Amino acid sequence: MDLSIIIVNWNSKDLLADALASVQENVKGITYEVVVIDSGSFDGCAKMLSQAYPWVRFIQSDTNLGFAKANNEAYQMSTGEVLLFLNPDTKVVGNAIQDLLQVLRSRPDAGLVGPKLLNADGSVQETCIRAFPTLLNQLLDSDVLRRHFPNSSLWGKRALKTANATPQRVEALSGASIMMSRKAFERVGLFSTEYFMYSEDMDLCLKAARAGFQAYYVPTAVVVHFGGASSSQSPTSNFSAVMRLESQWRFFRKMHSARYAAAYRAAMFLASLLRISALALLLPLQALIPGKRGVVYSLRKWVARLRWTVGTQAWMRNY
User: Fold this and answer.
1) Which residue of 73, 90, 233, 268 is surrounded by the most CB atoms within 10 Å?
2) What is the DSSP letter of 124?
3) Domain ranges in the chain?
4) DSSP reduced 3-state for 189
5) Confidence of residue 292 (pLDDT cuts 50, 70, 90)
């Protein structure tokens, strides 16, 4: 088997059906299998797959395992020489998968490759390539700075700004679509399960880099990524915002040191205080500001982040 496509589903049945349709329509000339694991959502995807895609290998998990554990479990059921970890909220365009496979096989140093991800409106999703997270680029991460200094090495997105269609070496790829040789995936120890969601892709890419594998961005391979389809359904208020902080902190603790992770928490505490102070000044004027609900929403988000920095988000212990 040339390729195993592994998809983790969580309340994304309809999007999953569209993703599989795009795979079936566009992947030609290679042998492949698809392994889908439902991570405890029981959203009806089992019935949908049995009726529309009976050739898909399906695994039903009794609980929500999280992204890393679910992918690892599905990997155990796969047989392909190459693995493609693909989100259910994606659509494969044209020869994207074949292009990724060709680059992975033709470059001796390649351990993992990723496509150009597009938003639903056709614009480029800039998170498809990134620099490895550091305390500095996390502190300076803002739309304003990225807009004024798009080619800064802090962001690792220079390859997106060139018209060069050849594969480009990058530091890290988005977990929405990562193709990796089975050999490389096994050598780095699979996905790290310290994370429930977020940061596991950065962890995987950094482990691969430290093991001597190069990541490549392949601009001719195009995948549409709708984004946030699963995490947005969480009943926990500000789940994504807080989970990103928690996962980033775990990444720093694991990949750097406990002291580095503590510095990150302290920096996020100060950043949250500054944002809350600025938003509080705008609050009395909200009736005069277009999009006033955005001010309230942002304030709540940053309060949730501040609470995480001082350890009062009790629900986080469940993950």
Assistant:
1) 90
2) B
3) 3-231, 235-313
4) coil
5) low
